[in-house]
Amino acid sequence: MLEGVNLRINRGEMVAIVGGSGCGKTVLLKHITGHFTADKGRVWVADHEAGTNGQGEAPLLEIGTASEDKLDEVRMHWAVVFQRNALLTGDVFDNLAMLPRELRAMTNEQILPLAVKALKDVGLDPELVLHRSRDMLSGGMAKRVAVARALAQRNANLRMLAVDEPTASLDPAWAAALARLLREVAAEGVSVFVATHDFAFAAACCTHAVLLDVGRVVGAGEFAAVMQPEALASVFGVPFARVQGVCQQPVTLPVW
User: Fold this and answer.
1) SS3 98
2) What is the mean pLDDT of residues 51-55?
3) Cβ count within 10 A of residue 203
4) Which has more pLDDT, 248 or 13?
5) CB of 199 within 8 A of CB of 253?
6) Residues 33-49, buried b or exposed e (16+ Cβ, 10 A)?
7) Three-class secondary structure of residue 27 per DSSP
8) Domain residues of the chain, as ranges?
9) Which CATH number fits domain 1-77+161-256: 2.40.50.220, 3.40.50.300, 2.30.30.180, 3.30.720.10?
10) Helix 108-121 and helix 139-151: axis angle, to 10°?
11) Fewer CB within 10 A of the end CB, N or C, for the chain?
12) In this structure, what are the phi and psi dihedrals at residue 152, rounded to the nearest 5 degrees?
């Protein structure tokens, strides 16, 4: 359950959603993407299907009052990487083709170059994995396929990407590569939300952070300002220290 959440996320920001297990990170992501409906309060998102004003801004749409048809229109500009990947039965191409086929009525011939590029972006060889069954993927490969499925929409006016625990099952090299890739996506004007326990990964790619504690926002703003050792110690109950030189900004890590 979430309570007292008040946030504004702008275009092109990369936002880390951090907090202890069960604090509401995934729930917050599902409210943002319209998979959950708030009992109280409102969630507003940019409606990129409605055009833009003179400043290039799309009008806002309240998720809670929008019809399912309207939400489907707006979701054409969103992509989600689920915590447990949520890959469909079938092969890798079937998974990457699902959204372009259903949302944009694209043919397999149109989808193929998008799928190939998305797999290359996550470091997978299309010739080896494009037609490999979901059940034949390792945990790390399945995570990268889930990311590739989201990125297959990258050339289709993608405006928001939500990623839940993206470094689960990834080794450090691919976690670092994913951080670089997400920075590239954000630089294209995509708002990126990352729910994570991986503080080093968050520091490597996120510009902003939201700190949750038992469903309440206890910190929100620029990443370094939110990820203070004292604030994290209060939420997690263990001491934290700030470390320099790990990535492009200081990393706040638990002291064991």
Assistant:
1) helix
2) 71
3) 24
4) 13
5) yes
6) bbbbeeeeeebebbbbb
7) helix
8) 1-77+161-256, 81-156
9) 3.40.50.300
10) 130
11) C
12) -65, -15
Over residues 213-241, the mean pLDDT reads: 94
76, 157 in Cβ contact below 8 A?
A: yes
Picking from 240, 235, 236, the residue whose alpha carbon sits closest to that of residue 216 is 235
Range from 55-64, 110-119, 121-130, 134-143 carrying the lowest mean pLDDT: 55-64
Mean of per-residue pLDDT scores for the chain:
89
Q: How far apart are CA 20 and CA 58, in angstroms?
A: 34
Instruction: Give the angle 161-109-125 at the CA atoms, nearest 5°.
Output: 65
Backbone CA torsion sign across 233, 236, 238, 244: negative
| CA distances, 133 to each of 46, 54, 61, 114 (Å) | 36, 47, 39, 19
Tokens of 24: 């509401």
pTM: 0.89
Report long-range pairs for 97-106 (Cβ below 8 Å, ≥24 apart).
97/152, 98/149, 99/149, 99/152, 99/153, 100/152, 100/153, 100/156, 103/72, 103/75, 103/76, 104/76, 104/156
Structure tokens given for 65: 């009052």
CA 21/CA 73 separation, integer angstroms: 33
* pLDDT 10s digits, 149-165: 988 877 657 889 999 99
What per-residue confidence (pLDDT) applies to 72?
84
